[in-house]
Amino acid sequence: MEPPQLATLWTIDAADVITSVGADWNAFAAANDGAALTGSRVVGRSLFDFIAGDETRRIYQLLLRRVRALDAPILLPFRCDSPDARRHMRLEIRPGRERGVEFRGVCLRSETRRHLRLVSASEPRPRALLVSCSFCLLVQVPPKSWLEAEDAVVRLRLLDGDAPPRLVYGVCPACKTRLGEASGGAAPLR
Questions:
Q1: pTM of the shown model
Q2: I need a labelling partner for 1 at 20 to 30 A (CA). Which of 14, 109, 111, 164 fits?
Q3: What order do you get walking across the sheet with 74-79 strand by strand?
Q4: How many other CB atoms are there within 10 angstroms of residue 175's CB atom?
Q5: Could you read off the pLDDT of 140-160 as tens digits, one per residue?
């Protein structure tokens, strides 16, 4: 297990454009199979260019609206896994200057795992789709279960073929409830 460490810091302006990234952004991107996401490639672009899934984008819009309206931070647990590690993290979203917002991701714990092709960005993908929660990274197993990626691989026999399915992102029911509360709603997000 790796010791907890600062994952990264980034800021957006009032139009949700990324204005800066922290000193350890590039190292964290590389460690998460995101070498194409260096600071020079993300600064100046919309935050929403990097958030997959309509449902996830909508939740982030609600969270940003709440942070700006209340001028108060929100803390959220989330996962940021790589093919070789599970990373349990905390995201702090807090008000910045001139209606900007600061994000700080802190790694609370990291567990190494056997390389998991399912979450590797470099794997070729067929047309088959599999839903993963954008926040906790559980994988949807029909009809209504959500499992850790390794368990879903076994249950769905995902790696019996040549390539794993393409991941698309949504939000599991537990995270919808938790995020609904964090964004100020009394009910789960729908």
A1: 0.76
A2: 164
A3: 18-21, 5-12, 101-112, 85-95, 74-79
A4: 25
A5: 998 889 999 888 888 877 766
